[in-house]
Design a protein that fits this description.
single chain, about 500 residues, mainly alpha, two-stranded antiparallel sheet, 22 helices, globular
Length: about 500
């Protein structure tokens, strides 16, 4: 009963829209020679870039993640846990399913390359199966920095996201005005900071939300007063109530106005998803425009929270959110596999109708396309249940204790560094860059996962107080493996 179901809803809603958005913009065309191509919808039909305003929903995931991480780390620290133990436990829940998924995809890539599959086709498939990976190293990095970031939050509160936002805006402007010839050098290196700054702002706002600094349903205990403020904000009464709506409205209106200025007279495009050849872009690295849009989403999420919470009081809605949240990691990792299955079954065989690309008839087929993909994904998820149970059981055995110290703590940090580097490479190049097997990134991911998940000796772990894990489900990545592991 201590869980905030609205936080679970935000995470589930974000995952659902990511899946639907990737499916919607994925377009397959069968050439006369029988080969399949995937034209880039956002580049081919520029007006569709406006659709990304509704589907770039990952700010809500970072907001929910920050809210949940604040509670999880506070409980772990109060029980005597260490940063390495807390980070290691979260890393295991993320890395195990990711490594299993990557291992199976890489196995398929290796077999296909050995059988002589066309390198261009293999590279396209490898890219499609890794297109969602950009999120994983960013989230791992922010999770690893959470103990430090939360300490800053406890000292300076809302001033931390303000400072990070100002720095992120400055970096975004620098990247936008930087000379094109300098890209790939200093400007690109500085721009990479915005993966931490922009997404870190939203994550930090999740801390503030939980501790009552943004109002709404806090639930924290910062300085003994935040929980009371959260209750008042939930009721919407008294001075806290109007401050809640005022702060949310400032974020929503200010963010929207900033986005309009940066996209209209400003230099940034409207698309909030990477478009090939578009300079500057909004996501690689995150831009000042994406920062403004993220602030607007946070404000809107706070404004609609009371209405959504009333809907979440219905048992059927709560059950749907719980089911979707429990399987969110599986959905996130595997949601492009149905595209390959449908491509092989209906496009390679010529069974799929082929109206003119972008025509009204083509758009009319988007509905059946989404329904078929959803049916295939449901079958895939059902088939993966034994793997999920095995990963949950393994995770329960190998996750570090809350008081992890010594050499094992360094293994966690080394494992995160190796895994994060490999996932970053896959996010930028796919699983079959150039149509070849990526041996070194695959080895780095395997080594990093092993470092983070190898069993720990007694001398390396100090047990935490009983109950340290209580309620930690709100802090995870939403994997069904995590829930099943706790149940076991």
């Amino acid at each position: 009963m201590s869980r905030d179901r609205y936080v679970d809803f935000l995470r589930a809603w974000a995952i659902l829209l990511v899946v639907l958005g990737h499916w919607l913009i994925t377009a397959l065309v069968r050439r006369p020679d029988g080969t399949i191509t995937a034209p880039e919808l956002l580049a081919t039909l520029p007006w569709t870039q406006w659709l990304t305003l509704g589907f770039q929903i990952m700010p809500l995931f970072f907001l929910a993640g920050g809210h949940a991480a604040a509670g999880s780390w506070s409980r772990a620290r109060a029980a005597g846990g260490t940063a390495a133990g807390w980070v290691g436990k979260r890393a295991v829940r993320l890395l195990l399913p990711t490594a299993a998924y990557s291992g199976l995809v890489l196995l398929a890539v290796g077999v296909s390359a050995a059988l002589g599959v066309d390198p261009a086709t293999l590279a396209l498939v490898g890219w499609a199966m890794a297109m969602q990976f950009w999120f994983l190293p960013v989230y791992l990095l922010i999770s690893a920095l959470t103990p430090v970031l939360y300490a800053l939050h406890e000292r300076w509160g809302t001033r931390v996201p303000v400072a990070m936002g100002v720095a992120g805006f400055g970096v975004g402007v620098l990247v936008a005005v930087g000379d094109a010839s300098s890209r790939g050098t200093a400007v690109e290196a500085v721009g990479a900071l915005n993966y931490l700054l922009v997404w870190g702002v939203v994550h930090q706002l999740g801390f503030c939300w939980r501790d009552g600094l943004l109002g709404g349903r806090g639930g924290g205990a910062r300085q003994g007063g935040s929980a009371r403020q959260g209750d008042e904000g939930r009721q919407g009464e008294g001075p806290t109530g109007w401050r809640v709506h005022g702060r949310a409205a400032v974020l929503a209106v200010g963010g929207l106005a900033g986005f309009a200025l940066l996209v209209g007279p400003g230099p940034f495009p409207v698309s909030l998803i990477l478009v090939t050849g578009q300079e500057p872009g909004n996501t690689d690295p995150p831009s000042a425009a994406l920062l403004a849009w993220s602030l607007a989403q946070v404000g809107v999420a706070l404004l609609v929270a009371p209405a959504v919470r009333r809907v979440l009081e219905r048992a059927g809605v709560r059950r749907a959110v719980r089911v979707l949240g429990a399987g969110s990691m599986t959905l996130y990792l595997w949601h492009m596999l149905p595209v390959l299955i449908v491509a092989a079954a209906f496009y390679l065989t010529g069974l799929a109708p082929q109206p003119r690309y972008g025509s009204p008839d083509w758009w009319a087929l988007r509905g059946p396309w989404l329904l078929v993909l959803a049916a295939v994904l449901a079958t895939v998820v059902r088939a993966l249940r034994p793997l999920e149970r095995a990963l949950a059981s393994l995770g329960a055995r190998v996750r570090p204790g809350p008081g992890l110290r010594g050499a094992a703590a360094w293994r966690v940090w080394a494992g995160l560094a190796l895994s994060g580097g490999a996932l970053t490479w896959f996010a930028g190049h796919g699983f079959a860059y150039g149509g070849t097997f990526p041996a070194w990134p695959a080895a780095a991911l395997a080594a990093g996962t092993l470092c983070a998940t190898l069993p720990y000796g007694r001398g390396e772990v100090r047990d935490g107080a009983p109950g340290e894990d209580a309620g930690d489900g709100a802090a995870g990545t939403g994997t069904s493996g995590g829930h099943a592991g706790r149940a076991a």
